[in-house]
Amino acid sequence: MDAKRCSFRSMDAMITIRFSNLYIKMPPGFERLVLVGLKLVNLEDLYPAFLEADTAIVGGGHFPRSSGGRYMILRLDTNGRIWQTIRRWTPQKEAYCHSRIGEAVRRGVTK
Questions:
Q1: C-alpha gyration radius of the chain
Q2: How far is CA 6 from the centre of its chain?
Q3: pTM value?
Q4: How does pLDDT run across 65-85, given as a tens digit for each residue?
Protein backbone atom coordinates (compact mmCIF):
# COMPACT_ATOMS: atom_id res chain seq x y z
CA MET A 1 0.00 0.00 0.00
CA ASP A 2 1.28 3.48 -0.84
CA ALA A 3 2.38 5.21 2.38
CA LYS A 4 2.16 8.67 0.80
CA ARG A 5 -1.60 8.27 0.44
CA CYS A 6 -1.93 8.94 4.18
CA SER A 7 0.57 11.80 4.32
CA PHE A 8 2.96 9.28 5.81
CA ARG A 9 6.37 8.38 4.44
CA SER A 10 8.44 5.35 5.35
CA MET A 11 11.96 6.15 6.65
CA ASP A 12 14.28 3.56 8.22
CA ALA A 13 11.33 1.36 9.26
CA MET A 14 9.73 4.36 10.99
CA ILE A 15 7.03 6.34 9.25
CA THR A 16 6.89 10.13 9.01
CA ILE A 17 3.74 12.23 9.19
CA ARG A 18 4.21 15.24 6.95
CA PHE A 19 2.82 18.66 7.80
CA SER A 20 2.86 21.66 5.45
CA ASN A 21 3.51 24.10 8.34
CA LEU A 22 4.17 24.29 12.05
CA TYR A 23 0.78 24.41 13.74
CA ILE A 24 -0.19 25.84 17.11
CA LYS A 25 -1.73 22.46 18.08
CA MET A 26 1.70 20.77 17.94
CA PRO A 27 3.45 20.17 21.25
CA PRO A 28 6.63 22.29 21.37
CA GLY A 29 9.91 20.57 20.62
CA PHE A 30 8.55 17.18 19.64
CA GLU A 31 10.33 15.02 17.12
CA ARG A 32 8.69 11.63 17.69
CA LEU A 33 5.14 10.68 18.36
CA VAL A 34 2.90 7.61 18.41
CA LEU A 35 -0.22 7.12 16.32
CA VAL A 36 -2.74 6.00 18.95
CA GLY A 37 -5.98 5.98 16.98
CA LEU A 38 -8.17 7.35 14.26
CA LYS A 39 -11.77 8.38 13.84
CA LEU A 40 -13.71 8.82 10.60
CA VAL A 41 -15.69 12.06 10.34
CA ASN A 42 -17.54 14.25 7.88
CA LEU A 43 -15.79 17.60 7.86
CA GLU A 44 -19.07 19.51 7.79
CA ASP A 45 -20.10 17.81 11.07
CA LEU A 46 -17.13 19.19 13.02
CA TYR A 47 -17.37 22.35 15.10
CA PRO A 48 -15.90 25.43 13.39
CA ALA A 49 -13.76 26.06 16.49
CA PHE A 50 -12.21 22.58 16.16
CA LEU A 51 -11.34 23.20 12.50
CA GLU A 52 -9.96 26.64 13.32
CA ALA A 53 -7.70 25.16 16.03
CA ASP A 54 -6.62 22.29 13.76
CA THR A 55 -5.50 24.60 10.96
CA ALA A 56 -3.96 27.49 12.96
CA ILE A 57 -0.38 28.09 11.78
CA VAL A 58 2.39 29.30 14.10
CA GLY A 59 3.01 32.94 13.15
CA GLY A 60 -0.53 33.50 11.87
CA GLY A 61 -2.96 32.27 9.27
CA HIS A 62 -4.74 28.98 8.68
CA PHE A 63 -4.25 26.06 6.34
CA PRO A 64 -7.15 26.04 3.82
CA ARG A 65 -9.59 23.13 4.09
CA SER A 66 -12.45 22.09 1.87
CA SER A 67 -15.95 22.77 3.16
CA GLY A 68 -16.93 19.13 3.49
CA GLY A 69 -16.24 15.51 2.78
CA ARG A 70 -14.96 12.42 4.55
CA TYR A 71 -11.83 12.83 6.69
CA MET A 72 -9.88 10.99 9.38
CA ILE A 73 -8.92 12.48 12.71
CA LEU A 74 -5.57 10.95 13.65
CA ARG A 75 -4.89 10.84 17.39
CA LEU A 76 -1.24 11.27 18.30
CA ASP A 77 0.70 10.94 21.56
CA THR A 78 3.77 13.05 22.19
CA ASN A 79 5.34 12.30 25.58
CA GLY A 80 1.92 11.65 27.12
CA ARG A 81 0.20 14.61 25.47
CA ILE A 82 -2.63 13.53 23.15
CA TRP A 83 -3.35 15.77 20.18
CA GLN A 84 -5.00 15.37 16.78
CA THR A 85 -4.66 16.16 13.13
CA ILE A 86 -7.09 15.82 10.23
CA ARG A 87 -6.31 13.95 7.01
CA ARG A 88 -8.37 13.29 3.90
CA TRP A 89 -10.02 9.87 3.88
CA THR A 90 -9.83 7.08 1.35
CA PRO A 91 -10.33 3.38 2.08
CA GLN A 92 -6.62 2.83 1.37
CA LYS A 93 -5.52 5.60 3.76
CA GLU A 94 -7.81 4.27 6.46
CA ALA A 95 -6.43 0.73 6.12
CA TYR A 96 -2.85 2.00 6.07
CA CYS A 97 -3.32 4.21 9.14
CA HIS A 98 -5.10 1.42 11.04
CA SER A 99 -2.14 -0.84 10.31
CA ARG A 100 0.20 1.75 11.89
CA ILE A 101 -1.68 2.36 15.17
CA GLY A 102 0.68 1.95 18.11
CA GLU A 103 3.78 2.70 16.07
CA ALA A 104 6.26 5.47 16.72
CA VAL A 105 6.43 8.02 13.90
CA ARG A 106 8.52 11.08 13.08
CA ARG A 107 7.14 14.43 12.09
CA GLY A 108 8.09 16.11 8.87
CA VAL A 109 7.40 19.78 8.18
CA THR A 110 7.73 20.95 4.60
CA LYS A 111 7.79 24.70 5.36
A1: 13
A2: 9
A3: 0.82
A4: 888 899 999 999 998 899 999
